[in-house]
Amino acid sequence: MKKAVIFDMDGVLIASEPVYQKRRQRFFEKYGVHLTEKQQLSFVGSNPPKMMATLFPNDARKQTEFLTAYRAYTAKHIIDYASILDPTAETLLKKLQQKGLTLAVASSGSQRAIEQVLTETGLASYFETYVSGESFEESKPHPAIYQATAEKLGYQPSECIAVEDSYYGVLAASRAGIDVLLLRNPFYYIEAPQAHAEIDKLIQVLDFV
């Protein structure tokens, strides 16, 4: 019997990936760097440090410079998170709590970003805890973030279920021993055979708990 549901944030609770992709494209075009569709897809479920390491694998100086510039750029180009919240998210969270389930967020995003999104969307009070990938030496697809989240909740991985939209996220949860639902995203397609099941809508999480 499942006792907890652990949610990824971007692409699951909020439809952020198309917005992030456009923002990334505009940023890199300023510096003459063109992102391919394949590169954009590879960044789903990733984070800025990993993104820079992927783009500039043999140039630590450039990684640092671009990371600093990108963080400054995103700080100026603010996203209205409430406008991209999944319309069924709050209903789902209420129903899961009514079933006695404990809720958490495990996101590759920064702690500041997670807190900002959950506060602006009004969802913060539903979650027992939220864990950021920046707290670990390796974020998704490494299982550490999911292992730590389950431990913070006081449950065994087998007592949890995760909801993800990216290959990295599915792999991380699966490696941690957690059954994971892959939420199909209408903006991109990924294959993640490690997923326990696939769902088309967030509210369908209710069918698995």
UniProtKB/TrEMBL annotation:
InterPro entries: Beta-PGM-like, HAD-like_sf, HAD-SF_hydro_IA, HAD_2, HAD_sf, PGP-like_dom2. Its cofactor is Mg(2+). One of its GO terms (molecular function) is catalytic activity. The keyword Metal-binding applies. It holds the Pfam family HAD_2. Gene3D superfamilies: HAD superfamily/HAD-like, Putative phosphatase, domain 2. The keyword Magnesium applies. Keywords: Carbohydrate metabolism, Magnesium, Metal-binding. It comes from the Bacteria. NCBIfam families: HAD-SF-IA-v3. Belongs to the HAD-like hydrolase superfamily. CbbY/CbbZ/Gph/YieH family. This is HAD family phosphatase. It comes from Vagococcus lutrae. The lineage of its organism: Bacteria, Bacillati, Bacillota, Bacilli, Lactobacillales.
